[in-house]
Amino acid sequence: MIDVKELLGESGLFRGLPGEQLDYLVAIGEDRKYDRGGMIFSEGGEGNGFYVVLSGRVKVFKLSLEGREQILHLFGPGDPLGEVPVFAGESFPANAEAMSSARLVFFPRQKLLALYTRHPSLAMNMLAILSKRLREFTRLIENLSLKEIPQRLAAYLLSRSGEDDSVDQVVLEVPKGILANILGTSQETLSRVLGRMAARGLIRVNGKRIVLLDRAGLEDLSSGELRL
Fold it and tell me: The pTM is what?
């Protein structure tokens, strides 16, 4: 069984809040479950609240006019999504879909704003998360528009390496096809670039585990100072 209060307290959005304020959040939250492929919200839909993932994995993506999918973010337990419209009062800027069976807690906008009025520290935490997301989107736009695929992949591996117990490895939690989508390329191109990076001694690929052998070299590749 998931302890909703405990998970919210460990999430980046609400970490450090006293138990009493977490109780307020649990009281206004609505438990929602989705099957794999279930749409959580759609681009243009009313931003009437935001979500925190309790279990499962969710992708946030946009579709081009030709129907091509570009994944913007992958979210797991403890991650918030759809929080921008809570402050802006606008529609959702992208789509969100469950990649597996997922359970989320939904916070209605009006109830949340009333809670923020009584407890401003809640709003400050959310503003910090929004600032982080803005930096992430800026980096994503830069990667997709200005950087070549090897640079994008090197930047991705460096950004993810700190999430594991060892700072020198990355465990891919998604299939390479999805990772290729995130990086704006094909799975075949991704495999070729991984092979070239391994041949240069930058990484070692062991299934889903990628060991970073030369962080300085990866940083040079990410910045464009090194070419494959």
Answer: 0.71
Among 190, 164, 21, 48, which residue's Cα sits nearest to residue 106?
48
Contact 57, 76 (CB under 8 A): yes
Buried b (16+ CB within 10 A) or exposed e, 182-203: bbbbeeeebeebbeebeebebb
What is residue 223's predicted lDDT score, i.e. its pLDDT? 87
Cα–Cα distance, 143 to 135 (Å, whole number): 12
CB 106 within 8 A of CB 30: yes
Q: Which CATH class is domain 147-223?
A: mainly alpha
User: Residues 100, 57: contact at Cβ < 8 Å?
Assistant: yes
pLDDT digits 0-9 by tens, 110-139: 998 898 888 887 777 777 766 776 676 666
CATH class for the domain made up of 4-136: mainly beta
Pairing of strands 209-212, 80-81: unpaired
Task: Please answer whether residues 75 and 7 qualify as being in contact, where contact means their C-beta atoms are separated by less than 8 angstroms.
Answer: no
Query: Is pLDDT of 108 > 50?
Result: yes
**Residue 101 DSSP symbol:** S
Q: Where are the domains of the chain?
A: 4-136, 147-223
Please check the confidence at residue 140 and state whether its pLDDT lies above 90: no
